[in-house]
Predict the structure.
Amino acid sequence: MTKPAAGFRKMRGSVVGWLPQLRGWLAVVPLFGLSTGLSAHALGHAHFAATTWTVVTLAVLVVLVTQVVRSLTKGDVGLDLVALLSMSGALALSQPLTGAVIALMYAGGQSLEAYAAGRAGKAMTALVARQPRTALREDVGGLTEVLLAALAPGDHILVRAGDVVPVDGRVFRGSAVLDRSSLTGEALPITLLANEPVLSGTVNAGTPFTVVAERPAADSTYAGIVRLVEAAQARKAPMAHLADRYGLAFLALTLLLAGGAWSASGDPLRALAVLVVATPCPLILAVPVALVSGLSRAAGNGVLIKGGGALETLAEIRVLVIDKTGTLTHGSARLTSTRSFGPYDAVEALRLAASLDQASGHPIARALVEEARRRALVLSQPQNVTESPGEGVSGWVEGRHVLVGGPRLMRMHDVRFPPPDGAGLVAAAATATVLVAVEGAPVAVLELVDPLRNDGGRTLAALRECGIKRIVLATGDRRAVAEALVAGLPVDAVAADLDPAAKTDIVAAERRSGPVMMVGDGINDAPALAAADLGIALGARGAAAAAEAADVVLLVDSLAPLPQAILIARRARAIALQSVWVGLGLSLVGMVAAALGHLSPLRGAVLQEIIDVAVILNALRALGGPQDGGEPTTQDVPRGA
Ligand code: ADP
Ligand code: MG
């Protein structure tokens, strides 16, 4: 049998590239051969029947051998070894019918797994592809947000920090730092100079830069999306841990029992019977089927879980660390007041700040740009922009050096705001403040209201209900703002004024009290997302860099599916475990019976086939309940798994 991972890996471009496609149809061969042989046998053509069974067994054996060799070269001593032994043993001992039955069992499992994986893959690709995606085009009059479909070769596109490059093209001028890990697996970001080619699907790991499109978006973006999904799927094998945990012990036990039965009875058929019953399809197939079903269910709710490993971890989470701006708040802040000092009035300060913030994907930046557009201010294109994630942006607007961001950014550039520059300015609950400086002098303080998400409180309560015992708010914003926002919510601790590194430290510290999931939206959250046991990114509006670093991406602009996703994960995991124990238990009983000579190889094969079907049908239950939508309940979730 194959490692479950194989169903998820697209082997495109490799020698065995045809294998995944073949796997889906593999069962047809033994099914046809088995029935042809049985009919021939009934009509008295025993020799023809035996030949047919031998041929189909050999055909499936060829595929099996390539799989075993492949997993052995990867260093996995797979359980498919047992299937290999029992099939070749059946042929060697002239038991072609037994061989054909095992071949059907093996191939049937392969088809089922290919089907389940394909189904989940399709759900995910569809979800990701449905996302409305836009790009910032540099037009004569300034920057315009356009749909990707409207991009044409020759267009100049501004790629903000943390954005995915939307089209294939070339760096316009200066340089760009790109994270290509999703495409090439390369961990280190690379620096590209002007005119060097940039691939869509890579993530801007540096400051904003301009790319000149070389291909229409449709040609390159779809490829980018597909690459992203494929990378997500290839990342972790579903339930690799579980199969690995029990696999080797089971293999050893099987060989011991088979060898013992053979030497005690002197009859190789007994050893074959043990091997046949041991062919551990429940372990190898039911587990991925249950997990993949869980992935597919979660995808249906707008939650992209990157593989079975992440699903397993999701089922075990005990601590939540959550980001504030854009995650717990809606990220669609509104400007409520502007205090200006110095040479510019409030409107001009907003115009300069918004012009610069066009180059940032931060929710506060988007709010400022929207406000400026609403007031019909003429924004100009910023030059040489640098973004410090979670701090703010600096750059040139109309020949003047502008800074927009929080107090940490101003401190970094030695700009002192007249007191009260800090807490005193925070008037109401759920307010964010943005400081603006021009040519090194303080110019304005903008106050925004960034309210809690509608379902924010309810989601936190629901998470608590499904077993999250500690909830920590981790924000780059000020303490007063953060504490006002979560007053009355089930939050155990607030950590404020954090830069990206400090957020990562908070996650690391919380890991001492149990498996931690970190939920965030920004580039400044990406390191913390990667450091957590499970990183969860808001993919609908958040930075692509965060989605990239995360194990789970919420593809809807809401936290609401999260409790449900945990329940789905727990259920899938519990069903997988149940399938393992029940399947292995039944096989073990059969193996002992076979060792004692109570079960012939053929009967054993048929019995094992029945166990497989039962266990796989059981695994498919993970596709159903807990019920869709509505309020998540803990009712039908097996606890204590
Ligand atoms: P959180 O960690 O809660 O998501 P951030 O660290 O992203 O918050 O942002 C905290 C503060 O940093 C904001 O309230 C704002 O003052 C400032 N800031 C960060 N990036 C920007 C930006 N691009 N434009 C304006 N302000 C920004
Ligand atoms: Mg944020």
